[in-house]
Amino acid sequence: MKIRSACMRRWNGWGDSNNHYPLKPSGLAFVQQRLGRAEPLPDAEMTAVVAKVPASRLPEHPSVDTRPETRLRHARGQSLPDWLAMRSGEFERFPDGVATPASSGAVRELLDWALEQGITVIPYGGGTSVAGHINPPESDAPVLTLSLAGMDQLMDLDTESQIATFGAGTPGPMVEQQLRERGYMLGHFPQSWELSTIGGWVASRSSGQQSMRYGRIEQMFAGGRVETPKGTLIIPTMPASSAGPDLREIILGSEGRMGVITEVKVRVTPLPETESFQVAFAPDWETGKELVRKMIQAKIPLSMLRLSNAEETRTHLMLAGHEKLVGILHRYLGVRGCGDSKCMITFGVTGDKSQARYVLSQTRKHIRQAGGVMVGRLLGKKWEESRFRSPYLRHGLWEHGYVVDTFETAVDWNRVTSAVETMEKAVRDNAGDGEQVHVFTHLSHLYSQGSSIYTTYVFRCSDSYEKTLARWRVLKEAASNAIVASGGTISHQHGVGRDHARWLHHEKGELGMAVLDRLVNHFDPQHRLNPGCLIENAPRTIR
Amino acid sequence: MKIRSACMRRWNGWGDSNNHYPLKPSGLAFVQQRLGRAEPLPDAEMTAVVAKVPASRLPEHPSVDTRPETRLRHARGQSLPDWLAMRSGEFERFPDGVATPASSGAVRELLDWALEQGITVIPYGGGTSVAGHINPPESDAPVLTLSLAGMDQLMDLDTESQIATFGAGTPGPMVEQQLRERGYMLGHFPQSWELSTIGGWVASRSSGQQSMRYGRIEQMFAGGRVETPKGTLIIPTMPASSAGPDLREIILGSEGRMGVITEVKVRVTPLPETESFQVAFAPDWETGKELVRKMIQAKIPLSMLRLSNAEETRTHLMLAGHEKLVGILHRYLGVRGCGDSKCMITFGVTGDKSQARYVLSQTRKHIRQAGGVMVGRLLGKKWEESRFRSPYLRHGLWEHGYVVDTFETAVDWNRVTSAVETMEKAVRDNAGDGEQVHVFTHLSHLYSQGSSIYTTYVFRCSDSYEKTLARWRVLKEAASNAIVASGGTISHQHGVGRDHARWLHHEKGELGMAVLDRLVNHFDPQHRLNPGCLIENAPRTIR
């Protein structure tokens, strides 16, 4: 029996339209106090936008859907410009059609047809990109969005080698559900998990909340099938190899520029015996940072570890809404040395019972030694319940006239604190017109070498969509410049897409950029696949 | 103060000429019983070989050493054909000169000079390749061997981010010695550790005995500097990134075809509080294999785990030489259910004391449940003492007229047993003339997905070098065919070089081979760097 997702997807925002998570009164009061009261901008109606979708430029094809609503629903991702486009109804561009092939063979045929006809092709997974990956580029060529949604099944499970084969369009919940029925799991949990797909994770090199235990997608991706303009690339599974450069590492992060990933083989694990998420507090940032650094460098096999800075801790507790409980918590922690500058640490303990006991005792020892305070499982449970809810926060704030966005990077430990400061300052200081920006940060993916940094910022809508977008552009530019100035990657977990392409050369260098160009030119000499993504513009000069 | 290696290197074999590990009488008797008595072949004298070195074809350069002995000492690696060439004195080809630059700038200058002059360049680390990586190719162009031996220092240590920067020519012992003085270690211990270099490990994607704890070189290599014909490639350090394909993974395994790696940044760790190696026995292969598979899949954080098959177990105990002790061991194990078909398991426990206790208790539980027997620390200590001694075994056998070689791969768990059988059979059945081959195998690098397979085989010298080499060629071809027929990589830890290049397309596919071609052509359009290595012949047709 085929398993199907029951999600009723919003056309102009995040997630399932049955899910509503409005801002709680105390949360709203907190935001208003920080930023001033705000006015929401008016939302467009879908019927009005559908009426504006222009005629398709595609030649007829029996498998291509050119209906306006379908094209509308595949025109944008989840970046802030995408959000503003969807809310205002000003989409700018739509794909000329959407195809949803159900097999690698069908993808092959569509791709060959598109190449022959001079059609631009955008491979489409869950449409959750926050960096403009799936937006139709400005182009004279018609644009076909090639959705992998028809390939959402577990195709094979080798329990001895613990390798599962999935259709590339399988979204997170269906990955886990199909594995769970067999006693296995993948463990890739990005915030976008509800909608994002296994092929999209590979194409954008994504990372999930429990990467400490299960690895980034790089460690999970064992092989698979890619339909490229040059032919079919099959990557066989081998546990490790010294035989030359690793082709998987070229497909990982290829962002649709080298081919359409159709089948993904991943390393899976049996369901764990036990799992809990817990919360502790450190008295201040520097203490907290040193504590989590030492924990990760001591190789304690936690499944998750994150550290919120003081402002995020404060914001998180305010938005939670349980004023009375939170008040008690503040007093309790204050007595134990964790006052206004306290930083929240969230961690996950996963495994068999003896492993969990060992991990917990090690963790407790480190936290105690650093002067931190463990507060039991309640807050950890809260985190677990709402772990995929952050993307809905944009709705809750938008209804009251606020905009929220995030940006992220990863740097070595010796640059973590200065990078956080530089990144926060960049958005705090650049809203213009004396506007306040509420900024907070956490470290969410820790490595012995360094950490990812995830910064969230909230600001008020201007009095028009145009001005709101213009304000965001200034902030995004400042944030991105701050990231590269701090020696960070332009993205630790969201990829490059179109929005980050301008900054990529800072980490790849000119010679490295030329390598990427070469690879794209090799697989797709006509630049039909997702042009403008990953590498800015069309062909860069090859040295 | 600069630390220098005190190794007095053999010109015609492995390692330090002060080290002798002759075969013990019981070991010799065992080999003679298996293969029959043998006659050693006569060794050449160095002076005679030096006299045969032809005039250098290189233009004069103040930094290039063209003395015959220097060229002789850089002409061959450690493959079996290399051994036979060194022992017979029939080297075939020598580099025309050797340069030993002391900085990236000096490498750059030499490389530019060589490109300008049409000189073929072979980057040279420790000269320990067993796949023909550093052998001068047949060519009309003069050949310059570019040794990194002058760059053997720890250049920087960031203890907060745990990143060390080394000159690429730093050999294993000097890597560890320079780190140990600061309280750190790298933990990359291939069998070639005495001589192989950190740059060579990156170029050939190598793996060390304790990769379970410290990772393969892929997990250690954080960035660095590569002097390529197209310019200097700097790879900055970042703990992780989703920003497009990973350039490190293109340099890893590049085998000198894309540039000269001059500086290597690696992830290091503090010295562990405690470490021990221990031995256990499983009653038979299938039980042992299932046991070690379950241990690795249960994520027990051992630092090493290997399983010898019954023949390797037998051979290992015979060669150890302690007849009386071994007799007692056999009887003890026999009583406890581990008889003739018993398989030895060696494992490493490394970390702080509480971690070690936890790991050991988990390990014990698994072994007991599988009907295995732990035998305390003595055999583990023996393994530790001789962990880098295997390459010397070739000397011990050679003196009595026997030849030893190895081959290796990695396959998913569901193919491990059949691959071992196919690989062993390939060499057992193909020596010709009714000759016996003594073959044994172990699994040495375990992954949740599968395992590496390392097979050793011993056979008698023929009555001439030519015939001995011819016999080896037949065996090597049969072994390599068996590997690819089993779905294995042509090398898990030794790279491709020239000897494995013919088999590489089995795992990369035609399209993948074309990608490698593209990359080589991009960095080195004139094919001046190590031609014939990794990719057979000169330019492959680019599709």
From TrEMBL, chains A, B:
Residues 91-271 form the FAD-binding PCMH-type domain. Its cofactor is FAD. The active site is at residue 454. InterPro entries: Alkyl-DHAP_Synthase, FAD-bd_oxidored_4_C, FAD-bd_PCMH, FAD-bd_PCMH-like_sf, FAD-bd_PCMH_sub1, FAD-bd_PCMH_sub2, FAD-linked_Oxase-like_C, Oxid_FAD_bind_N. PROSITE patterns: FAD_PCMH. FAD binds at residues 123-129, 255-261. This is Alkylglycerone-phosphate synthase. It comes from Alcanivorax borkumensis (strain ATCC 700651 / DSM 11573 / NCIMB 13689 / SK2).
